[in-house]
Design a protein that fits this description.
two-stranded antiparallel sheet; single chain; alpha+beta; 454 residues; 9 strands; 2 domains; Umud Fragment, subunit A
Amino acid sequence: MGMLESLTRRMKVAALPLLLFAFCFGLFVAYLLLAGFMTPDETYVAYGVLSASMLGLFLLFVKGVEGSKASEYGLRGESRSSMQSLSVAILLLAAFLIVVLEPGFVLGFTRQAAPTLFAFGFFIFTTPLVATAQEAVFRGYIFKTLASKTTLVTGLIVSSALFAIQNTNPLVLSSIGTGGGVQYLFSNTVVSFALGIAMGLYFYKTGWSLLGPIIVRSGLLLQQNLSPVVANTSSWEFTFVFQLMGVAALVLLVNAFVKEPKLLAKKYLDLRIGPKKWRFLQRARWRAEAKKTLRTFAVVGIVIVAFVIGFQAAAGSSLHLAAIPTGSMRPTIYPGTLVVVQAVNNPSQIHVGDIIEFSPSWFNGSVVHRVLSETPTQSGFLYTTKGDNNTSPDPAPVSYSRVTGKVVLIIPYLGFLVLSPPLDIALVAVLFMSSLLGSSLKSPKPSIGPRRRG
C-alpha cells in the first residue's frame, strides 16, 4: 500500500511537467508533418511560430495553472550580475567551440554554403526566441518543478531526457535503417541529453536564473546554423566524441566558475552549512568522486579484458566473432550484428539452410551467407550460397576448403563496436560524461550537519 501511495504521489508531481512536454512535442510533430508541404522559407517561419507557441505554453502553465510569476521559473532581470553572466556564458561558448573545432586544425576545415538572406535574418532574430522557449520549458518549468518536488538528480535526468526527445525527429528516425538510426540517435539524441544536463546544472548553480543558459544556447544555435566553416572529421563517431568532450568542458567550467549558492543547500537539504564548510564539503566530494570514477573505470577495464581473454581461452580456435557490415542477410542478420562462428571439422557438419562464413574466390574478404544446396565432388563439397536479402545466388559455388565455420549465435548491434572502433571511444566518452555529470550533481549527504528542529 505504501508503494502504491508513493507511486501515485510521484505521478501527481510529474503530471503538469509531462503535460507541458506532451503539448510541446505535439506542436513539434505537427510542425514536422506540415513542413513537408512548405517551402524552405515557410518552414523557417513555421519554426518561429512553434517556438513562440512553446513560450506561450510555458507562460500559460506558470501564470494560468500554477498562479505564479515567470521570474520564479528563471525568467527574471539580473541587472547586477548581467555582465558576469555574459562573461561566463562567452567563456563557456568559446570552450565548446574550441573543442568541437579542434579536429579541423589537424584534418582541415570545410566552408559551408552561405544561407539565403531570409534564412540569415531568420536565425539572427529568432535564435534568442528559440533558446528562451526551450530553456524556459525544459529547464525553467520541467526541471525546477521536478527538482523542487522530488530530487535534483531526478528532475535533471527526466527534464534532459524529455529535452532529447523533443530534439529527435521521429519522421527521420522511422525512414532510415539500423545503421542510420544508431548514428542519428548518438549524434542527435545522446548529445541533446548531455547538453540538457549541462544546461540544467548551469541553471541550478546560478540560483535558478535562465539568463546564462539562454545566452549559451543562443550562441550554440547560431554556431550550428550560421558558422561559415566546420571541422573535417574522419567519421560521425569522431564528431560525436568531440561534441561530448565539448559538453564535458561546459560542465567543468560551470563547476569551476559558477559557485552554487549556499542557501540552496539549506533549501533542498535542510542543513545548517556555512560558506566555509560548504566549500570544504564541495572539494572533499570532488576528490572522493574523482577517485571513485577512476576506480570504476579500472574495474570495468579489468572485467572487459578478463572477459575477452577468458572467451579466447575457453573457445580456443573453435569459436570466433565476426561483425556484419552489410544488409545482404536481412531480415535474419542486420548490419552491425555480431555473430559467433563455430569452426567445422568435416562437411557433415554443414547442412542446407545453415548460415556459414567463407572466403570466396570472387571477393577479397569473408562473407556470411546461407547454404542453398550442396553438391558432392571428387575433391570435396561445393556449396551454393545466397544472402537472404539478395535476389540471386552468389556468383560462384564455394568449396569446403574455403569455409571457415558456421554461425551459431546472432547478437544484434554489438557488431558496431567491431566495425567502428571510434564508436568504442564514443561509448567510453559517454561513460566518462555520466560519471562527470553524476559527480557534479551529488550534494552532501543530509546526515552532514545538524537538522533544523521544529
